[in-house]
Automatic annotation (TrEMBL):
It comes from Weissella muntiaci. PANTHER family: ACETYLORNITHINE DEACETYLASE, N-ACETYL-L-CITRULLINE DEACETYLASE. GO terms for biological process: L-arginine biosynthetic process; proteolysis. It holds the Pfam family M20_dimer. SUPFAM superfamilies: Bacterial exopeptidase dimerisation domain (SSF55031), Zn-dependent exopeptidases (SSF53187). Belongs to the peptidase M20A family. This is Sapep family Mn(2+)-dependent dipeptidase. The keyword Hydrolase applies. InterPro entries: Bact_exopeptidase_dim_dom, M20A_pepV-rel, Peptidase_M20, Peptidase_M20_dimer, Peptidase_M20A. The lineage of its organism: Bacteria, Bacillati, Bacillota, Bacilli, Lactobacillales.
Length: 451
């Protein structure tokens, strides 16, 4: 296999990654305006990246409203797309960082700074892959286009604009997950179930749609506390007791693996049914809890051979005198219709007098795993990484690959790369970057170079 890079190329990639990592491109909803819909730092990271692209010889385009940009090289109608994102999550508690999160350092061959793994590092480094290939004299079959999103960590408003206004791609990948390759991502549905307000009890337990709640606290009268404790003992559900406050203990898990966790909210709801046997909310929570205990869901078994089982997470319950709200997340197998799932759900909730209210839906990703594109990517990954057993994967997670047709999530982290995404001291080893670049170069060489 051809060796496309020398040390100078690698050093240049690292220097450019630093230029973009040093821009603290965290969504700032409080400081948005025309031309900078996610805040001025986010647009600054986009501009810095487009400047680098221009220096490398790409033609660039920046959405005048500041939602996205792209850089392109080559001619012809066919487009190979590489889709990354330039926004990052906040640094979190800076005391937990050994160095300033937005002043990238290279220490012992490792880049350290927010965005080195997710996703500035892989996005910028891949531009140097294309540059090195052109320097080596290759002619691409068409245009190679880098698409830069700027709202991946939040609401994906960038790609919504991009797909509405710009052309699609014929093949490509998103370097924002793990190797080997993800060809299927389940449909992702966040929704609320709404019911009437209640005067009997106030409750606010649980959290984000994508996490199994690991604790649920309620404060009751002395008499009720004793009764609830008894019921939880009978159910064999662990809890702690502090005066008249009971905290049911669960175990957190990502919603895509909901059955790996223990849902403290449904357990508490199940216990509270004994105190409020007439209240629909606790009848419903008990039904959900019983399904979880039986390792299934209230919708029964829904699955397909392509992507496995539907998962369901009950994330949060709020009861006020005005309203009852239950927040939930469902991950739908790629060949199952969302509408069929929603109507089955509506049938299930009707007896509990709950109303369905959709919050967010992301359509699934599904690319034929036997396609030439997927097979070539997997072959190259196996040859270069030495991981000969690797197979294309299915995921309950979400990448930009589902926003743009004909793309898959491909890298950029290796199975043995320590996962620092969204964490303090985010870092990426230059040797992993180099291996990633070799893989991407060979994929482009086999799929998109004139022979
Ligand atoms: Zn990312």
């Amino acid at each position: 296999m051809k060796n496309w890079f020398n040390e100078t190329d690698i050093d240049a990639a690292v220097a450019s990654i630093k230029r973009v990592v040093d821009v603290p491109s965290v969504l700032d909803e409080g400081a948005t305006g025309i031309g900078f819909p996610f805040g001025k730092s986010v647009v600054a990271a986009l501009d810095e990246t487009l400047a680098i692209a221009k220096e490398l010889g790409f033609t660039t385009y920046r959405d005048p409203e500041g939602y996205y940009g792209y850089a392109e090289i080559g001619t012809g109608s066919e487009v190979f797309g590489i889709i990354g994102h330039l926004d990052v999550v906040p640094s979190g508690d800076e005391k937990q960082w050994d160095h300033a999160p937005f002043d990238m350092q290279v220490i012992d061959g490792v880049m350290i700074g927010r965005g080195t793994q997710d996703d500035k590092g892989p996005t910028i480094a891949t531009m140097y892959v294309v540059k090195a290939m052109l320097d080596a004299g290759v002619k691409f079959k068409g245009r190679v286009r880098f698409i830069y999103g700027t709202d991946e960590e939040n609401l994906w408003r960038c790609m919504e604009r991009y797909t509405a206004k710009e052309e699609g791609i014929d093949m490509g990948f998103v370097p924002d997950a793990e190797f080997p390759l993800t060809y299927a991502e389940k449909g992702l549905l966040d929704f609320d179930l709404l019911g009437p307000g209640l005067s009997e009890i106030m409750l606010s337990v649980g959290g984000a749609y994508n996490a199994v709640p690991d604790g649920a606290q309620v404060t009751l009268s002395t008499e009720q506390t004793t009764k609830l404790a008894q019921v939880l003992d009978d159910l064999d559900y662990p809890y702690t007791l502090d005066g008249t406050t009971i905290t049911v203990q669960g175990k957190s898990a990502h919603a895509k693996d909901a059955l790996d966790g223990i849902n403290a909210v449904t357990r508490l709801g199940h216990g509270l049914l004994a105190l409020y046997p007439e209240l629909n909310i606790f009848k419903f929570l008990t039904a959900v809890d019983q399904a979880i205990e039986a390792k299934t869901t209230i919708l029964g078994e829904i699955s397909d051979p392509e992507s496995g089982k539907l998962t369901l997470n009950l994330a949060k319950v709020e009861i006020t005198p005005e309203q009852t709200r239950i927040a939930m997340n469902i991950r739908i197998p790629v060949t199952v219709a969302k509408d069929a799932v929603v109507s089955q759900l509506q049938e299930f909730i009707a007896p509990f007098a709950l109303q369905y209210s959709e919050i967010d839906y992301l359509a699934p990703l599904y690319i034929d795993r036997n396609s030439a594109m997927v097979q070539t990517m997997i072959d190259v990954y196996r040859e270069i990484s030495g991981d000969t057993e690797a197979e294309p994967m299915v995921s309950g997670g979400a990448t930009f690959a589902r926003t743009i047709k004909n793309s898959v999530a491909f890298g950029a982290m290796f199975p043995d790369t320590p996962d620092y995404m969204h964490q303090p001291n985010e870092r990426w080893a230059i040797k992993d970057m180099t291996k990633m670049m070799e893989i991407y170069a060979e994929v482009l060489n086999r799929l998109f170079v004139e022979k």
